Amino acid sequence: MVQVYTNAKALLGDNLELADEVTIVVEGETIADVLREKLDDGEDLQGALVIPAFVDAHTHIGDTAAKELGIGLKVEAAVAPPNGLKHRFLRSLSREELVASMRQGMLEMLKSGIAAFGDFREEGLEGVLALKEAAQGLPIKPVILGRPIADANKGLEVIQEEVRQILEVADGLGISSVNVFPVEIMHEFRNLLKDKLLAIHIAESPRSAVRSFEKYGKSEIARALEFEPDLMIHLTNATDEDLKLLSEHKQPIACCPRTNCLLGDGIPPLAAMLKSKINFGLGTDNMMFSSPDMFREMDFASRVSRGVSKDPTCVESRSFLQAATKKGADALQIGSKFGTIAKGKSASFLVLNPNSRSFVYSHDLISTVVHRLGPEDIWAFVCQGKDVIKDGKFLLA
Known about the structure:
Blueprint: E1 2-12, E2 17-27, E3 30-35, E4 43-44, E5 49-52, E6 54-60, H1 75-79, H2 85-92, H3 95-111, E7 114-121, H4 124-135, E8 141-146, H5 156-167, E9 172-175, H6 183-193, E10 197-202, H7 206-216, H8 220-224, E11 231-234, H9 240-249, E12 253-255, H10 257-262, H11 270-275, E13 280-282, E14 285-286, H12 294-309, H13 317-323, H14 326-331, E15 349-352, H15 365-371, E16 378-383, E17 386-390, E18 393-394
Parallel strand pairs: 1-4, 1-5, 6-7, 6-14, 7-8, 8-9, 9-10, 10-11, 11-12, 12-13
Antiparallel strand pairs: 1-2, 2-3, 5-15, 15-16, 16-17, 17-18
């Protein structure tokens, strides 16, 4: 089936180039063509702005049933495995309750314009299978990064066997900390992963950052680079020396400033990362603490970066929209399909309400998207070729 959307403004390609009178031709789940002309046939978008659908680069969707449960706690008490508050709570849920809560989380993502997300899935193989079950029938792409239950005390063979089972159904591994497994085991994980993702939380807490220097004489980031993770998450407490290393290694990153701030862990040095040409995607992190709203994440990231640096010129709005779309997709290694509007990509894009009051008198459309809009301004959302929002109405239950 071919669907034609015409007469749009659109942010196209890797650089989000603004183009007028754009026509997007969708065939099945794919963008068959992008034309720089208005057609007489097709759905007339009336000059509405079309942007790529969001990619949420880091989530813990299993926490959906625990909203606001850990507010006021430090990260170690709230979410550290195996006995942090969230882990105790998750163990109290039945499988049916867990699956239902994760499905609810994905519906919230879709309502907010998110087409794909990278999830750190706890509880080993069963946790991965529960998310796959929850996602059935939904037009959203989960990149599932499983986490083994076995710890270093179980022995290498036990850990390897569990990881093999996880990797048969998951897209990679999501390790909670550089302190969980010795570097030798992380190298073994690399061998088992082959072409799948190895992702890890790094330099999230200021306390863990200090302990790393005290115990090892180097930062968590420097230690993690020894086993070459595909994706580092958080980096809230990265040092200037860390940023130099990350830039040299061209290390993919995902940052989650709203949750980091709520937990009192600090603010990722996003302006310094951009200055060092370090690419990062944005993630909304724990459903426990933050809504899956990339509009809020972009706005917060842009404002705090300028505020902390005391320099309003230190970042560009475009960088944060890229971080919420293309850079997030690249971080999860799904950039060949998601994150931009281009021929051959997934037909996943947002049509923003041309009648939104936020666009009235706007002198910078990208800044308006980053700093003023919200999910309520999504007029239509086509996700992998399927209508999720149409005429402002959410079509899924």
